Amino acid sequence: MTVPLTLRTPAQPADQPRPPDPAVLGAALDRLEADGGSPPEKPDTETRADAATLLHARGADLDRLLAVAGALRDQGLAEAGRPGVITYSRKVFVPLTHLCQDRCHYCIFVQTPGKLAKAGISPYMSAEEVLEVARQGAALGCKEALLTLGDRPENRWPVARQWLDDHGYASTLDYVGHMARLILDETGLLPHLNPGVMSWAELQRLKPVGPSMGMMLETTSARLWTEKGEAHFGSPDKDPALRLRVIDDAGRSRIPFTTGVLLGIGENYAERVDSILALRDAHARHGHVQEVIVQNFRAKSATAMMGAADLETQEYAAAVAVTRVLLGPGMRVQAPPNLTDAAELQLLVRAGIDDWGGVSPLTPDHVNPERPWPHIEDLARLTADGGYTLRERLTAHPHYLREARAGAEWLDDRLRDRVLALADDYGLARHDALLGEFPSSPAPPASLSAGYSPSRAPQKGEYPALNGGGRLGALLGDVQSDPRGVDDAGWVELLGADGADLEDLAALADQVRRERVGDAVTYAVNRNIDASLGLPPERVAELAAEAVALGASEVCAQGAPPAEQGADAYLDLARAVKQGGPGLHLHAFRPAELADGAARAGLPLADWLALLREAGVDTVPGTGARILDDRVRGLLTGGTDIPAERWVELVTAAHTAGLRSTATIVYGHVESARDQVRHLRALARVQDATGGFTELIPMPWLPSESPVPVPGARGATLRESRALHAVARLMLAGRIDHVQAAWTKLGMRGAQRVLAGGADDLGGVLLDGVLDPDAGPEQGRELTVADVTRLAAELGRPVRQRTTTYEQVG
């Protein structure tokens, strides 16, 4: 691409405001000192304006800013139980490929195929080359392998696609996963994966081999991406909205995630503040941002921006300090030590950093090859000169490892023991941890079959042998012989099962699953449409037609159409789906929306349901059940939910009208095990009366998706998910025989674990399509048939595509 001559110098963007009046800056510093540093939980306009003003601090004003930021950092270290400790990770840098589909104007890491060929370099590092670097790093005491590469080069370069095809890899990310596994198996180094933009499903696929991952946000400035001549123009993966979605999806996937900002590429001060606050917001939703890197621009020769000025040191220090102020004492803030001259590193320490990031005793910084890493001994001395102690950490930061040790799901269970073996009790790297001490392979997966071997599964009527020594052994025997005779107290006790008792419970539920529905893991091919968007009927018809072309058998519509569109909006959407996809099954409108439509139309519910069926609705989602207890429902929705009795009335009326539905339970918030049992009992009563439920979908409550804050909510653990799915299978056997693993809530591994303990279905794959991917309420979370097949194959089970009502497709 020809570089425009109008390229702006990034240190002085055209719309950068002039330095504020000294009195304005002084007033902002006064407010900062009076507030103790951190801004309010929800920064207002004044807070944002003050932050942008503080970015101008220099000289004595900068000293005042650094004092506040440094004190906040010290407070955070003390609260974290590591006062005076600044961390780093000893790593090797593995540049898997220098090819990329992006064209960032400042990047020297990315090369063209022609340049690589001229230098005799393969499009991708070979497995042997990767292992050689990793082994040398392990010998030098490294514990991290940073896998960095260009973003999806096969989308731009045929030579990349050909190399992947020749070596049997579906994509660059597929190769990343294989190399990460190889590094783990052969060297014990922990991979930190930094491959650029990833989908939710790709993050999930890589989690078993990546204790941590990362991707720089860089900036929220859309103009740097959309405007010709700006730093990110021509780079499809530098769309800020796309990168923020990746960061959110990493949080939903419970991945310790490194991100950050790149300063000096043309953004203005207000955009710097927006970028930092966007990361703060993402972390507030998911708690997964393990560190924020504040990186300063360094011009590179032979790039479009080689004439641009480097970010000035005091300006950089002010930005680091403002980042600390905005993110507060609890966030880890990193500055790369090789991008600042050694004599000026103390300024960054004063500015509030508490981590230096990865430092390699072996490999160069391939992104900034002109800037060598400091020797670790020199970095320790420089850190000590500032009054701090340098300590080595692992790829995932200490508190994630401590929480993982306590049962939190920050690490894939197949990787957990491997990582924790290298950590001390606090979560930092063990001083005595040599990779050779531990098994050369990650710990094998925990028994997915929960008590039996797939090669010798119990036959129908033959229950698996239970451990017998658990405290729940006698109760499980009662469940085997007469599950309907077990009282509520017994089921409550089973919901608390853990350890060997949980494995026995899961084994029994899995055998009952086999007897009731067989071994196949079923799934539907569908797409979601968010009715609340008020899409015109012609657009809905186009989306339905695209769904048919993509192989879907179902469209699911949820949400109430905008009130101003009246009752006809419900009917128009149904008719449009059938127009665009005459053979599609329409699964649409939750119980609360059924009531809303009837009220809008001024019709009795039975008459409204008849109109919906006539318009094309085939079944309805049984969502909104949450927990059928009005006290709990009020806490979960701020009092806006329909009463539990009304939900039962509505779903019963739908069944009576010939509209079958799913049944749901949302768990892991403020409800008790007894509430869960009562909920399942209520569903059983409806099913006994109507026979209308097709399946049960247990869904863990996710704080990030809650419409209101829920004080005291605990969050569901994998143990609770496994126990609830197993109990639901056993309680409802013969009533509701299909139990779904809600993969969008559980994640791929969580879904797999409950499929091994009573669940039999993965639900819909949620196709996005290309016409309007944002039309689906869970946009960006899509499974492929290959994902479904892999999940089932690891359980030793076949897969089967089904319709909405569990008939076989094809």
- Beta fraction: 5-15%
Largest sheet: 9 strands, parallel
C-alpha-based Rg, rounded: 28 Å
What's the β-strand tally? 18
Mean pLDDT: 91
Q: What structural category do the secondary elements indicate?
A: alpha/beta
**What ranges have pLDDT less than 50 throughout 5 or more consecutive residues?**
1-12, 436-458
Report how far apart the termini are.
48 Å
User: How would the global form be characterised?
Assistant: globular
Secondary structure tally, helices: 29
The share of residues in helices is 40-55%
Would you kindly provide a written description of the structure presented here, covering whatever features stand out?
By secondary structure, the chain is an alpha/beta fold. The chain is built from 29 helices and 18 strands. The strands form four sheets. Strands 1, 2, 3, 4, 5, 6, 7, 8 and 9 form a nine-stranded parallel beta sheet that branches. The protein has a three-stranded parallel beta sheet with strand order 17-10-18. The protein has a three-stranded parallel beta sheet with strand order 11-12-13, covered by helices on one side. α20 (537-549) links the parallel β11 (526-530) and β12 (554-558). α10 (240-252) runs parallel beside α11 (269-286) and α27 (718-732) packs across α28. The radius of gyration is 28 Å and the shape is globular.
